[in-house]
Amino acid sequence: LLYKPVDRVTRSTLVLHDLLKHTPASHPDHPLLQDALRISQNFLSSINEEITPRRQSMTVKKGEVIVPAF
Prior knowledge:
With 70 residues, the protein is mainly α. It has helices spanning 3-21, 30-58.
């Protein structure tokens, strides 16, 4: 359930990217679409930067044995 909002932003970013591709540069919404795309990409990048160190610390290499601490 916690992943749903991030997934929604990811899908919206893809839609913005496609919309920007099909919007002429002379259209008044073009700069606004560029700003919206930049903001959503920066948001997703910041989330990824926060998650990557945690993900790496939780990664188990092949053949490595984890001994639970009791």
